[in-house]
């Protein structure tokens, strides 16, 4: 987890959508929004596991587990004075929370390296032209395959989005942030904003993320804002 986030607590789960039953919501006292009632079972399960993890993470910072509704841009609406973030992907779910007095925002994301077609799409969406040149040399420096590195960059940008989005309050795409460096020894990654998104996030603002491999093909990235 990032430096300066010693007050934040995470809950990372192994999940099995096939073992999930809809009555788990009632059983665990987790609110189910109407759109989740109508969703496919996989979505019902991932929403459940994300909220369940959030409840455990809130308990770890000494707060009661209450409802975490969904905001206008799909963001989780945390209790007052709490910042946090949720992710779920291919058998994992994670939630990360902190009292707002210690962090201005949190972002967490888990991604598994996709198949070839999806990887091409991911590259087209997430990679800036000026990052393409860096990627090959970074593969050697960071001791990562190109697919893993692209997945890491994609995940880092999604964590960046989740952390900034509650302040920026509008959608911004992957082109607004550029990879500056990866430190494979300490598993750190730096993204830099190329445009101003908000007075608190001017062009040149740098997000210092941490990352980890939670499986050989699955990355976790996270960002805590000071
Ligand atoms: C919102 C987004 C980041 C979610 O990431 P994802 O890999 O699709 O899915 P994950 O499982 O990791 O995360 C989903 C969770 O993100 C959270 N989330 C969704 N929208 C959010 C927002 N606007 N702000 C903060 N968190 C948000 C939710 O908790 C959601 O889970 P839930 O619906 O079960 O509550 C992604 O769908 C997206 O829209 N990305 C485009 C914007 C972007 O990343 N720009 C890059 C800027 S450099």
TrEMBL record:
The record, for InterPro entries, names: 4-PPantetheinyl_Trfase_dom (IPR008278), 4-PPantetheinyl_Trfase_dom_sf (IPR037143), 4PPT_N (IPR041354), Enbac_synth_compD-like (IPR003542)
Q: Which UniProt keywords apply?
A: Enterobactin biosynthesis, Magnesium, Metal-binding, Transferase
GO CC list: enterobactin synthetase complex; plasma membrane
Pathway(s) annotated for this protein in UniProt = Siderophore biosynthesis; enterobactin biosynthesis
- Organism encoding this protein: Variovorax beijingensis
- Alphabetical list of PANTHER family matching this protein: ENTEROBACTIN SYNTHASE COMPONENT D (PTHR38096)
Its subunit composition reads:
EntB, EntD, EntE, and EntF form a multienzyme complex called enterobactin synthase.
Provide any one GO MF term from the record: holo-[acyl-carrier-protein] synthase activity
Which cofactors go with this protein? Mg(2+)
Q: Which residues bind CoA?
A: 43, 51, 87-88, 109, 158, 162
Give residues annotated as binding Mg(2+): 109-111
GO biological process terms, semicolon-separated: enterobactin biosynthetic process
* Protein name from the UniProt record: Enterobactin synthase component D
- Domain (4'-phosphopantetheinyl transferase): residue spans on this chain: 105-190
Which reaction equations make up its catalytic activity?
A: apo-[peptidyl-carrier protein] + CoA = holo-[peptidyl-carrier protein] + adenosine 3',5'-bisphosphate + H(+); apo-[aryl-carrier protein] + CoA = holo-[aryl-carrier protein] + adenosine 3',5'-bisphosphate + H(+)
Its family remark reads:
Belongs to the P-Pant transferase superfamily. EntD family.
- At the top level, the lineage of the source is Bacteria
User: What Pfam family is a match, any one?
Assistant: 4PPT_N
Annotated 4'-phosphopantetheinyl transferase N-terminal domain ranges read 36-97
Reported function: Involved in the biosynthesis of the siderophore enterobactin (enterochelin), which is a macrocyclic trimeric lactone of N-(2,3-dihydroxybenzoyl)-serine. The serine trilactone serves as a scaffolding for the three catechol functionalities that provide hexadentate coordination for the tightly ligated iron(2+) atoms.
């Amino acid at each position: 987890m990032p430096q300066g986030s010693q007050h934040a607590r995470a809950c990372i789960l192994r999940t099995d959508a096939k073992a999930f039953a809809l009555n788990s919501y009632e059983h665990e006292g987790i609110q189910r929004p109407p759109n989740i009632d109508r969703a496919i079972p996989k979505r019902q399960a991932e929403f459940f596991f994300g909220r369940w993890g959030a409840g455990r993470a809130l308990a770890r910072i000494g707060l009661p587990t209450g409802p975490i509704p969904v905001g206008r841009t799909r963001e989780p609406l945390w209790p007052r004075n709490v910042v946090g973030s949720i992710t779920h992907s291919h058998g994992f779910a994670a939630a990360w929370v902190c009292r707002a007095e210690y962090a201005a925002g949190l972002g967490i994301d888990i991604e598994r390296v996709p198949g070839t077609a999806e990887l091409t799409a991911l590259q087209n969406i997430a990679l800036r032209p000026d990052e393409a040149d860096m990627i090959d040399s970074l593969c050697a420096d960071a001791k990562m395959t190109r697919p893993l590195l692209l997945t890491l960059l994609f995940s880092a940008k999604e964590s960046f989005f989740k952390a900034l989005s509650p302040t920026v309050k509008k959608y911004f795409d992957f082109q607004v942030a550029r990879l500056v460096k990866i430190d494979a020894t300490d598993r750190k990654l730096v993204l830099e904003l190329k445009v101003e998104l908000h007075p608190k996030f001017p062009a040149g603002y740098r997000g210092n993320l941490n990352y980890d491999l939670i499986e050989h093909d699955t990355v976790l990235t996270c960002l805590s804002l000071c």
